[in-house]
Design a protein that fits this description.
The chain is of the alpha/beta class. The protein is 40% helix and 13% strand. β7, α9 and β8 form a beta-alpha-beta unit. α1 crosses α10, α2 runs antiparallel to α3 and α8 packs across α9. The structure holds manganese (II) ion (MN).
């Protein structure tokens, strides 16, 4: 590999290239296939999550491939598929419709027919995105490759988790890192909202046998009640984690409790806003508090040390905040993605 080649060119159009991290391997040669999903139709506050795959990929070229924890896992190949221009175009047009509906609701419009029509159109578009993701993920798994998804907002992995559920016959758990519980039945009239992803996952016919949430610090009463009503959902609220840490408990012991809730096979759904917003200032719905990058990387290592298998992951809500670029967010996102790819390989090779 030519390590002297230019490492970082933010102006490079992602559509012109494939791959990621500057790894010169094809999809066929690579063990990991990443699906970029530039989608943010239902985002409610900050914008730019559909740029996540682009800024993560651009920043990925700066990362040194050798890693202290995962060594030369990259030699197995991490490949990102072509940027789906059609999906991005669909995102842009339906995001406008969704924004129009949100505005009508805010203004307490009485035109219920128009609002129902808009909601229906947006929900159909979101289902199309989910079907597209599902088909992409099925092809990755049928190719006997390891799967990662790069969103996009947090509505994007529904099709991925469905594909994983089929592949593993529901015998896996989801580790959900997020500031938000994402257990709303619907949000702002949208059934496939970023705020509903885990509700949709946990009420699907094909679903994980366990959902373990960490970093959660923004949720409504309905979500809190839903958590209490389900034996297959365990939430480590951020305030609980912080109480333990601030009282002198070690993170390694907290991680043991998190691991105890997880089955042997683990899918990681990582909303970047689960981290302290210092690591993702441009994410769409930032909340103070949260996890440090060290705590998350330590937890990944513990998952691997425990002998568990990571069966796939998504990374979402890395965003530009509506600006042209967001290099820091892209940089952090790329480093998180790199660790996820490395552990995905390592925990599947033993
Ligand atoms: Mn989320």
């Amino acid at each position: 590999m030519d390590r002297n080649a230019p490492k970082f060119d933010a102006t490079t159009a992602i559509s012109a290239e494939f791959g990621i991290f500057g790894i010169p391997m094809t999809e066929e040669e690579s063990l990991v296939t990443l699906i970029p999903v530039p989608w943010e139709v239902t985002t409610s506050y900050g914008h730019g999550a559909s740029e996540g795959p682009r800024i993560v990929r651009n920043a990925s070229e700066q990362i040194d491939l050798f890693d202290f924890e995962t060594g030369k896992a990259y030699e197995n190949g991490f490949f990102m598929r072509e940027f789906p221009q059609q999906l991005k175009a669909m995102n842009d047009s339906f995001k406008e419709k969704a924004q129009k509906l949100i505005l009508m609701r805010t203004n307490q419009s009485t035109d219920t027919t128009a609002m129902e029509q808009l909601a229906e159109e947006v929900n159909v578009a979101c289902q199309k995105m989910t079907d597209w993701v599902y088909n992409q993920c099925k092809s990755v798994l049928n190719n006997k490759k390891l799967l990662g998804l790069v969103g996009g907002d947090h509505s994007t992995p529904l099709g991925a988790i469905k594909a994983i559920a089929e592949e593993h016959n529901n015998d896996f758990g989801v580790l959900h890192i997020d500031a938000h519980a994402d257990l709303r039945k619907a949000y702002q009239g949208f059934t496939q909202s970023h705020a509903s992803i885990m509700y949709n996952v946990m009420t699907a016919e094909k679903r994980p046998k366990k959902l373990v949430q960490i970093g959660i610090r923004d949720f409504c009463e309905e979500e809190f009640d839903f958590i209490q009503s389900r034996k297959d959902i365990k939430t480590f609220f951020d305030i609980e984690l912080k109480r333990r840490l601030l009282s002198g408990e070690a993170w390694v012991d907290v991680c043991k409790d998190i691991l105890n809730e997880l089955p042997q096979k683990v899918y990681i759904s990582f909303d970047i806003d689960g981290l302290d917003p210092a690591f993702c200032p441009n994410t769409g719905t930032p909340v103070p508090g949260g996890l440090s990058i060290d705590q998350v990387f330590f937890l990944f290592n513990e998952i691997s040390q425990s002998g568990r298998q990571i069966v796939g992951f998504d990374l979402n809500e890395v965003s530009t905040g509506g600006e042209a670029e967001a290099e820091w967010d892209g940089n952090v996102g790329a480093r998180v993605l790199y660790k996820l790819c490395g552990w995905l390989v390592k925990t599947n090779q033993r």
